[in-house]
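Replying to the earlier thread about multi-chain prediction with a worked example.

Input:
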Amino acid sequence: MSVRFTVRAQDEASRARRGELVTTHGVVQTPAFMAVGTRATVTGLTPDDLRDVGAQVVLGNTYHLMLRPGPELFQRVGGIHKYMQWHGPVLTDSGGYQIFSLKEDRTVSEKGARFRAYTDQRMHMLSPERSIEVQTAIGSDIMMVLDVCIDSTSEEGAVREAMERTHRWALRSLAARTNPQQALFAIAQGGLNPELRKQSVQFLTQHPFDGFAIGGLAVGDSRQQREEITHLAAELLPADKPRYLMGVGTPPDLLHAVLAGVDMFDCVLPTHLGWQGTAFTSTGRVRITRAPNASCDEPLDAQCTCSTCAKFSRSYLHHLFKCSEPLGPRLLSLHNLHHYHALMAEVRSAIEAGTYASYARQKLEQIDRHEHNGRRLGRALP
Amino acid sequence: MSVRFTVRAQDEASRARRGELVTTHGVVQTPAFMAVGTRATVTGLTPDDLRDVGAQVVLGNTYHLMLRPGPELFQRVGGIHKYMQWHGPVLTDSGGYQIFSLKEDRTVSEKGARFRAYTDQRMHMLSPERSIEVQTAIGSDIMMVLDVCIDSTSEEGAVREAMERTHRWALRSLAARTNPQQALFAIAQGGLNPELRKQSVQFLTQHPFDGFAIGGLAVGDSRQQREEITHLAAELLPADKPRYLMGVGTPPDLLHAVLAGVDMFDCVLPTHLGWQGTAFTSTGRVRITRAPNASCDEPLDAQCTCSTCAKFSRSYLHHLFKCSEPLGPRLLSLHNLHHYHALMAEVRSAIEAGTYASYARQKLEQIDRHEHNGRRLGRALP
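Result:
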């Protein structure tokens, strides 16, 4: 058995659920946020740092890892866990999103995608079978099928075509799987078209995948469109399999998707924004380079229990960013990941207590109020 | 009393000595290497990391810290220790070296140096008195006098002039000191001229400084010149005060200077080279980006007990550098600082055992052999 998923509690006033996903490398408490470690590293952080912020799962990327360091390395050293020294669960994305982001030197056929690599300038092929082969070498606990990603706002014919190829590729991925220890999740596509989304979910759930993802969102769509499609798809997905909303998003996105019954998330925001100098806090986002922070001796977030907030003042973090010192991004990134993981821990507690719907409403109002204040106060807010 | 220095053991066959320097923020076991934390941060590392690598003292820079975050901040928050959360001893360099490295918009007079700041484009004055005032605000345990730095290879007249002004500035610094808790070290100058070096040491040691530094080396001189001047100066310095060789250097530089009776060192090499991808190991320097490391699953240094070597392979570190991932420099920098601190711990043990001279000879031969092999094998050596 690759993964075992159990729903432990169900919220009373929403579809939110509290689950446990048992993988080869440990148990994931859901709803779970997964830290993005594209190239077998979560930018600037060690596995010890990840454990400190409460990370449960690290997400690697098949496209990037097949180019560098390459599947042969993973075969030789015995997989990504040993390589990056993260001994908890790892999920690998298939590379579909990356392939379709390449603008030049890329041809996609029914067979797969041929593309020129940025690493060695040579042509490579990423097919459903090759993606599974590479993910098998990487040794992730959860593999994703190669899917056809297009802008969520594309016209219907294109969305349908991409969806249908995604389905054929999903079945080829299933047939290509060789290691029963590694779970395989399918990815529902269908853009922003409710009818296509429904077809996609109905097709994929007839096949023995270990979990289902909702793909193709947060690529040009509005928050409202995203929420509608997420609710529709999650409702149609089977209750006994984990549901994973890919690449989404902000804390409000997560709170809404949990209401819809989503169990797993990933997003680069906490790390990317951290490296750019923006922190998520319980009183809204903080741009650390803004002048008022230079004279603020309080932590980023007085409510936060992360190691950055336990020790360092905003004035020190401001100084580090002003000097382009790499400790600054490291400390902010750590804080942001802790913020996301602490939010998910709160989410899980609220579901267990059966109060998630009211918790989420309150939390969303709070975030909205802070963002509104932030906009209103403009530059006066640090 | 600002600092108290005690010589605990004296090597039999050399001038090497094992001491203890008691400062307001803790005891420094000497000979000691000090980690360079110019802008109140050792590039990319936290105070916890510094403790893990065995760091005893962190070195800040008055020139950089007066411009950013500025002395007013240190006054407000109560000093650098609290600000950067390093609660061990801190030494601040005076800014002399930085001032004299500025090529444009700088005028030096008997009063001090006027210069245009890179931070705010305004003119600032750094005089001996101002340097002490800023260092007092910073709250370092050991302050350095502002000195006049010129190329060690300058002609005699210029070297003499710089030395004489350094002496006058040293006395002005002494007179400007207000906090008896903060030690003040003088800096001997005199370039590569033995007679001037002698005069400088003789002049400065007549005054109640808490320690003496040998400045103006590692700026254009050869290793042999550096060693001769270090031996000459150290021999003339009083036995009951700590001796600090500024900005020097490689492990062989340190081993030689300890033979001469030097107690304290600082150098950017372990951190700078670490960020550039070069590691110090017990078998010579390793350029991690070299191709053979891509397939080497051994640690950087099998002899090393640092957290990088305990966990990560060369192939993983190579991958991180190839991907420009910031975890790479962080892990190499950590390793290099551990390497330097472990070397100094070995040095201290050898002096205690009365075997330093033979230990140093053996160690120097070993390093020389590895460097020779490295050159001979060329690109074949990872």
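Confidence is low (pLDDT under 50) at residues 376-382 of chain B.

Feel free to reuse this layout for your own posts.
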